[in-house]
Write a structure and sequence with these properties.
By secondary structure, this protein is mainly α. The chain is built from five helices and no strands.
Length: about 190
């Protein structure tokens, strides 16, 4: 294998560790996007939305965002981000960092409106507040879905890269102990 090709390869263990971390965070974002709910069984915002639950959504999104930021930063500081595959993975991680960091404020904004909903005095006020809450919460969940998709794509690129490495290994002869040169004919037989 040429030095240029070898330089482009991300070590297997590093790639596997990153794939595991990305898959865990992808699943966390996916689960949050599909289970964090604002609306009740009737599809309505409750009269007194659970403020603490909405704050937990914001805190969970913030924690997820911090974890993704840490992984992205670590990868950006590694020599692997300079390879062709590494730069593609880094672009996906950067997108996941951005979308996950945008989710937390949306959930925090949803929680911000919750205490004022029971105090709303007119149907117009209540309608205005519920509309803002539904929009903010749905936007936060959409950010988490995009985060999950971006992490999935980064993990898939790394998995494809590992498949490429296996393919290269099969094509390249394995180095073993050097074979001795063939015996030289003796000068006496001439």
């Amino acid at each position: 294998m040429t030095p240029n090709v070898r330089r482009e390869l991300i070590p297997r263990d590093d790639a596997l560790d990153l794939i595991r971390a990305l898959n865990a965070m992808k699943e966390e974002a996916h689960t949050a996007a599909h289970t964090w709910e604002l609306l009740n069984e009737d599809g309505q915002v409750p009269a007194a939305p659970p403020y603490t639950v909405l704050l937990q959504h914001a805190a969970g999104a913030q924690d997820l965002s911090r974890g993704i930021l840490r992984i992205t930063s670590d990868f950006a500081h590694s020599p692997h981000h300079t390879t062709r595959v590494g730069s593609n993975v880094l672009a996906k991680l950067a997108w996941a960092t951005t979308t996950s960091s945008n989710a937390a404020p949306q959930f925090a904004e949803t929680a911000e409106y919750a205490p004022s909903l029971p105090r709303s005095t007119s149907p117009a006020d209540r309608n205005h507040i519920t509309t803002k809450m539904v929009f903010s919460h749905a936007t936060g969940r959409a950010h988490l879905r995009r985060t999950s998709a971006s992490l999935r794509m980064a993990a898939e690129q790394l998995a494809d890269h590992l498949g490429f490495q296996r393919f290269l290994t099969q094509l390249t002869p394995q180095e073993g102990p050097p074979t001795p040169p063939p015996p030289r004919p003796s000068s006496r037989n001439r």
